[in-house]
Design brief:
By secondary structure, this protein is of the alpha+beta class. Helices cover 23% and strands 27% of the residues.
């Protein structure tokens, strides 16, 4: 035997025995360690785009690092690593760095990590399974969509009644007790039995070295990360396994379900209770979440919708009462609107996109649903007391607090300086929406400017309302013409107005009545009348508030102001305009400005006017990210039948909840989390053609506004839209604003220098050239305006940065070109026309 042959044999043994990761790997230090709200670790390392990073863990601080749980492509500067499971302490983690140009083979299956990473879900860098046909199974479940394609739902599952009515995917692990276990996720439509799948792919399915089970999805169960919707796993027919087996299965499953966000649990049924009880102490000291079958039928008793803390005066409140900024409020029915408060507790379920929860997110205040809170002694005993209130993902804390604690808290969180909202009075005319640009938000309000801007995005006629914008100048002139600013100043200075909230409420009501009854200058009446007459004959006009302190980054002002419909029999539109103006001075809006030290006399009201939609078939709210379940590359949609508002739902009204894939790769690019309580059976409100449309619209809306708001590449940026399905089956978008989590760093301007897809010629003929400087594209796709993908090309090199695409198979029309950069997290989109 030669020396070279001896080294070839001994080197793998030596690296295994002494923990040497291999020639390619370099252990690198962890720069920062934190845990997010969902319980997952966040590890930051110094990195480059030429490397990738393997995260390994150990169960005990003195053990070896053996198990890889995630792989992440590097970025220039720093990269944040996480894993799909709950966090360990810092000393349990190791990060290895590998060059992308010379990748390792972490699972030892003969295929390098980078090749397998880009070949998911057929292969996976952390799974030694031999690739199988996508029609029968995968090695990785990389998204909700893949899970849905593999899953099956049956009403009567023999020997496994706990699966009845639930979506589940079967799995099989072979070579389990070796260093190279092979995990297969089975297409459970194609193979009803594990054994049939094993025979089809030629693997041995007998013996202790094989583990078989299923992954089940429970859409209405609170997960370990605090959100609704959790995955569980257990073994065939519900039988149990030893703790060590469960732990290895849990980590292998989670590592190959990279979309999981600490929402995978071990499912305990009556058939595996004995094994669990025997190892209960081990489970309790591990990071494996447990879900008992009995818990599935208990319903949701608690949901921490916005995890935060606060102080205030705790009392039960009716819909007729208006709470103060320092109140912790208990509601038994959801209010239509809510001013700033110190905290929220409701005994009825909220939608995540309700005005109540948006208010909580925006103000960073605690908000939770608690079933029957008045039956809880610790809550009842604190009513009408000052309290400290904290909402966590799986529990709440409430205790009595001193007035000094309350005062100190609010002194710390209020702005230190006066705030002046944007105001440009140089726009002195009512303008058609097509003449209003994005940068004119300081003259017409962001709501008006954003709707006008969307009309330039190339959507089909009627998708974005036609109409007009009434500028702030009109409001200012109206108020000055009637000396109403002087009246407001006298009102605010009145000692009782400051000291007594009930008096303040009554004085503001009187002031609003003055606004509604005041005369308009003749020139203003003429201008508004001309606008009204410009609408088609017989049109009822919706007059929507568009103030200069709502729909802005970091402050959406949801529900603060009032919109009015000018019906045909009501005469001159000035009536509705004055009503909208008056709403700037309601109690909740006044106190919101007062809390944030916004100048009341700089606050101004613009009005967005467009045709009113009557007898709508559905309405909804969508976000160009997934703020609820934190899945990647998905849009979040809430839709309800008719006029039952998502933002202000009726009691016990549950909306349709959908996660929509940003890029539709297969037939079904979405997953239904929850069906509407108002629709019989499993029928969808957002039928497939509507989902195709909303996918295309939200993609463009996100990309275009990201440029306008200087937010390209910022992970916390998203757009929040409101949409309707009209009586004649049209999907229309009536509003777009930055999602409540996004805080703007600089004033938004047009013309930001960012990477972009350049398409030429445009309009195009038989081909287009695509160029994207400084962005390593790994995928290009073309979709029609309804979101249907018509073309897709992938590459692992730089060839797509300057590519030519044939269009001879496309009919004339408008299309969306989308490019995906190398880490699959950022998208660039643009439109082109095929002649």
């Amino acid at each position: 035997m030669t020396k070279k042959h001896l080294i070839t044999i001994l080197f793998p043994l030596l690296t295994s025995a002494f923990g040497i990761p291999g020639l390619r790997a370099q252990q690198i230090p962890i720069q920062s360690y934190s845990v997010d709200a969902g319980g997952q670790v966040r590890l930051t390392v110094n990195s480059t785009a030429d490397h990738y990073y393997l995260l390994k863990i150990r169960h005990q601080p003195d053990a070896d690092f053996q198990l890889p749980t995630s792989m992440t492509l590097g970025q220039a500067g720093t990269t944040t690593l996480t894993e799909p499971m709950a966090h360990y302490p810092l000393e349990h983690y190791q990060v290895l760095e590998y060059p992308v140009s010379d990748p390792a083979d972490s699972d030892g299956d003969g295929v390098d990590d980078i090749t397998e990473y880009y070949n998911m879900p057929i292969q996976g860098p952390l799974n030694a399974a031999v690739p199988v046909d996508l029609n029968i199974g995968t090695a990785v479940i990389d998204s909700f969509t893949t899970f849905q394609k593999l899953s099956i739902t049956k009403q009567h599952v023999q020997w496994s009644e706990f699966l009845d009515g639930k979506g589940y995917v079967k799995f099989i692990i072979v070579d389990f007790h070796t260093d190279q276990p092979k995990l297969y996720f089975i297409d459970s439509y194609a193979y009803d039995l594990h054994d049939d799948f094993a025979k089809a792919v030629g693997i041995d399915y007998l013996g202790d070295n094989v583990k078989k089970g299923q992954i089940i999805y429970h859409p209405t169960v609170l997960s370990n990360n605090g959100t609704l919707g959790t995955f569980t796993f257990n073994y065939s027919n519900g039988h149990g396994q030893d703790f060590e087996v469960v732990q290895k299965c849990y980590e292998l499953l989670a590592a190959n379900m990279p979309f999981i966000r600490n929402n995978l649990s071990y499912f305990i049924t009556e058939r595996n209770e004995d094994e669990y009880a025997r190892d209960q102490a081990l489970f309790q000291n591990s990071r494996i979440p447990i879900l008992f079958e009995t818990d599935l039928f208990a319903g949701i008793d608690y949901w921490g919708l916005n995890q935060a803390e606060g102080y205030g005066y705790f009392h039960q409140i009716s819909l007729e009462e208006i709470p103060g900024a320092r109140d912790i409020v208990l509601y038994e029915t959801l209010p239509n609107s809510l001013p700033r408060v110190g905290g929220i507790m409701t005994s009825v379920l909220q939608t995540p996109l309700s005005h109540v929860n948006l208010r909580a997110i925006q103000s960073n205040i605690p908000n939770a649903f608690i079933r029957d809170p008045l039956a809880v002694d610790s809550i009842v005993q604190l009513l009408d007391h000052y309290v400290y209130y904290r909402v966590e993902q799986d529990r709440y804390v409430i205790r009595e607090a001193s007035l000094e604690e309350v005062n100190n808290w609010y002194d710390d969180i209020r702005p230190k300086e006066e705030q002046t909202p944007p105001l440009d009075l140089s726009y002195t005319s009512i303008l058609p929406l097509d003449d209003i640009a994005f940068e004119m938000y300081d003259g017409f309000g962001a709501k008006c400017a954003n709707v006008a801007t969307m009309r330039t995005f190339g959507f089909p006629d009627g998708t974005i309302p036609d109409g007009f914008g009434v500028p702030f100048y009109f409001y200012r002139e109206f108020m000055e013409y009637n000396h109403l600013f002087e009246a407001a100043e006298a009102m605010i200075k009145h000692p009782d107005f400051k000291a007594d909230r009930e008096v303040r409420d009554e004085m503001l009501k009187d002031f609003r009545n003055k606004i509604k009854d005041a005369e308009m200058p003749p020139w203003m009446l003429d201008a508004l009348g001309a606008m009204q007459n410009a609408f088609p004959t017989g049109t009822s006009i919706r007059c929507r508030s568009s103030s200069n302190n709502e729909d802005l980054p970091g402050f959406n002002g949801a529900g603060l102001y009032t919109s009015k419909t000018q019906h045909l029999e009501e005469g001159h539109i000035s009536k509705s305009i004055r009503q909208v103006y008056a709403s700037l001075w309601n109690l909740r809006a006044f106190e919101e400005r007062e809390f944030y030290k916004v100048d009341h006399f700089a606050a101004s009201m613009g009005v967005l006017c467009h045709p009113n939609y009557e007898d709508e078939k559905a309405n909804g709210v969508g976000v160009s990210t997934d703020p609820i379940y934190n899945t990647d590359n998905t849009f979040y949609l809430n839709t309800q039948l008719g006029e039952d508002l998502i933002t202000n739902p009726e009691a016990n009204s549950i909306p349709e909840e959908i996660l929509l894939d940003r890029i539709a790769v297969g037939k079904d690019g979405y997953i239904v989390i929850q069906h509407s309580s108002l629709v019989p059976g499993k029928e969808l409100i957002m039928q497939e053609h509507y989902l195709d449309q909303i996918r295309a619209y939200l993609t463009v809306i996100h990309e275009k506004f990201a440029v306008l708001y200087h937010a390209v590449g910022q992970e916390n940026f998203a757009m929040d839209i409101e949409y309707k399905i009209t009586s004649d089956d049209r999907l229309i978008i009536k509003q777009a604003r930055p999602w409540a989590f996004y805080l703007l760093n600089d004033t938004p301007v047009v013309g930001v220098d960012i990477p972009e897809l350049k398409v030429f010629p445009n309009p195009a003929g038989e081909f287009i050239h695509v160029k994207c400087e400084d962005c390593l594209l790994t995928e290009l796709s073309i979709s029609d305006i309804r979101g249907r993908q018509l073309f897709r090309r992938t590459s692992n090199d730089s060839s797509l940065m300057n590519a030519s695409l044939q269009l001879d198979q496309l009919p004339p029309g408008t299309y969306i070109l989308t490019g995906i950069i190398h880490n699959k997290r950022h998208y660039f989109s643009t439109q082109f026309v095929k002649q």
